[in-house]
């Protein structure tokens, strides 16, 4: 029998609020998952309140950089708390974010504004991911139809924007001289996977080309290069993101995956500052946390404890986090990581 998702949300909210787990099946591991440290819960609550307070009445977060991406990342972090567009303390903010992002949908399927965002594929990919999570919980038929239309055209745009090598660049292939790079490629793959999970048709050929692109960018040390045109130098951030994307694409066992996982674990598992020179620490661990989470509790819990402790300590008194790009970006990334255990985002579930 298929039960409505909202029933599961209510159950998980009640479980979290009570701090209880079933007495007959509880283990130390499940108890740790069900009852996070109070300081983590406090950091999450303060961060969510800060993020929600920074949204404008039009649904956007008034940043000068990446407006579509910021709205999508922030909306995703709010969904991770358990709220939907109709229920929960952040329902209004999520609905507004969805309205804003839908308003950015163009006739050719692009979600974004090339006039104000020179690297619009980031916003497009994150927007597909966010709206696909909204679609999975949307109960109003007319709203669902609108989301399906926007996402169907967005998927088509992504397919048309793919480069000959199988990746994506900061803009569509035709506008960017067929240039590709890893971070935007991963954003597209996750967005497309979110759409497919929500019932939007996605070309298998597009996904296979993207997987082959990642394989071609792999170096002898197991890491992934920044671009298919700049191979030979591995980047931990791109490697972690590529692993998460491959998992999203259903690839857990190709011969490249263990090598990528070993490289990532050596470079990142100690929570060092790999990638910090590029300002990518939070980007790196947004993806690497997804990778470790999917390895199972034995790997996840020790890593999670160290990661969450570090994130909590770095929070500002007002509830935000600061760092490269913008506090909205850093706060949204940290909140998404801190709430992986809650399991409300289908795209990140095991």
Automatic annotation (TrEMBL):
Name used for this protein in its record: Prenyltransferase and squalene oxidase repeat protein
UniProt organism field: Allorhodopirellula solitaria
Domain of life the protein comes from: Bacteria
